[in-house]
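User: Second chain of the day. Same drill as before.
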Amino acid sequence: RVVHMPCALCRRHDGSCRCTLGFYFDQTQGQCAQCDPGMTSADDRLSCIPCGATEYTPSVGLCIECAEGKVPTASGGDCTTCPAGTTSAGGNCVPCATGQYSQGGFCIECAEGKVPTASGGDCASCPPGQTSRNGTCVCAANHYNRSFGHIFCFEQDYFVDAILNDEYTTARVQDDSGLLCLECPRCVSCNAGTEPVLVPGF
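Assistant: Same format as last time:
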């Protein structure tokens, strides 16, 4: 709906009608007409121009910056909070950085040992034996990925009775647990997220 303002109510400049902020001079009607939401008056008050990409109009013609984590609505008359996993940048909602989640449009780093959920609105703990790195769960220090097979240490030549000792039994129970990351035995060195490396002497 176009709202008109009689020229008599406008501020005059050099004897001509100069519309107030948020209005432009409608030459057809000979009156000032109100700019649409998300727009403000051009300097000459003869047309309306869009507010900035990050701005909205809470009142007629007044362009105001949306708060951090919010972007202008399609109409430009209000701001809306960015969805989970995103924040505001240049008038658009953009993904948070790796390893971050968001609440109310603010990106927050997940605590150690946690990674963002699929929605990006919270953090979830990594499974046992794992820790977080670059937004994903990896095997923690002193643990190795079971894809390297079952690692068992022998300090002497292999013999069948060796598989009956307590160390092997403990390792086998762990292996059968279904965990992705298993505890590193004493004959290998395991740094977080890396391959197990044989310790000198074995």
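The mean pLDDT is 84.

User: Great, on to the next one.
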